[in-house]
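Hi Y.,

Following your request, here is the sequence exactly as I used it, all 417 residues.
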Amino acid sequence: MKIVDVVCAKGRTGFYFDDQRAIKAGAAHDGFTYIGKPITDGFKAVRQAGEAVSVMIILEDGQIAYGDCAAVQYSGAGGRDPLFLAEDFIPVIEKMIKPRLVGRELNSFKQLAEEVDNLHDDAGKRIHTALRYGVTQAILDAVAKAKKQLMCEVIADEYNTRVSDEEIAIFTQSGDDRYNNVDKMIIKHAEVLPHGLINNVKEKLGEDGELLLEYVGWLRDRVAKLKTTADYAPVLHIDVYGTIGLAFNNDVDRIVAYFRQLEKAAAPLKLRIEGPVDVEEREKQIAVLAEITARLHKENIKVEIVADEWCNTFEDIKDFADKGAGDMLQIKTPDLGGINNIIEAVLYCKQKGVGAYQGGTCNETNRSAEVCVHVAMATQPAQMLAKPGMGVDEGYMIVYNEMQRILAVRKSRKSGK
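Below is the corresponding structure, written out as tokens. Let me know if you'd prefer a different format.
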């Protein structure tokens, strides 16, 4: 089965592009947007509409496969590629990618995906992660349609894995509505919650961490009050965007002591803290996360550290895993470029005994989320993100329902019905 055409359409994402540097510098909320001037290159406002490019691959039998190019909410921060605007990058697809795909046989996802993932522009720079992300999604769908398989089955065949017969734990994120949205998560029995979006010391963490301590205690009590089954005990996973480091001047002794307080506030629930510090440089980030992780283990403080900032590419993930920089690594799917890298990253973390969190961003699309479910089902990470959006219901629905479709189809095939 050959590719006969590649067609692009501009799209919207499930959230927004936010200038993280401007927010950390004190940009204040004004309704749903922010007051102040952007700092990161490419931004025209601190918050602006998220954009995507839908890439459609036309097969010679008329079938249409597609994937969506999307970039993270905090584009341009933490060592990431710059802001992804559709009108800037559709011409790149037309010029550089379409000619390489039209006429190609759809025999191997891995081969075509790696070829696209390694494309460089005229200046010798690797093409934007969002392009690699969306085009490889479309290639996976195209190979699956050509072979009359599910996308997860193509991955399992080519990477010698086994498609899960059980659900992967789904991690839901609250956005700034970190109280009402938690109720939604508990009602739906989300396995991991709430993300929390703790991205400001004064307003959300507290100068001495007191606001987060209060919130963790509230989470513990709210789960106990609203749960409808005795065995429901979700993992508390909170992303603090480096604010603990800011509040405690990156003093590891003070940070470790604070984690002991957090552990007690969460008990009996398990607690994970994502991005406790952000020291604005990759090697220093690895070193400090490794130090914090080791100290928590040594002192038997049962709070897991999750790496995020500066852990962007497959090479980053290998380095963080090799050096013990976190108990769990977020594999932030758009940041890795081709979804072939996501597959490899999950498998590498599992090989190294590090928790694999197949994440992503609220700023993706329904399609990229669906494809990511297939990646998760074929590689079996510890958890995957409900996405896109910050409203809980929509992202959870998209991920949960695609997971259930995969399970039902495969079960039906096995039973012969």
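The chain has a mean pLDDT of 96.

Thanks again,
Q.
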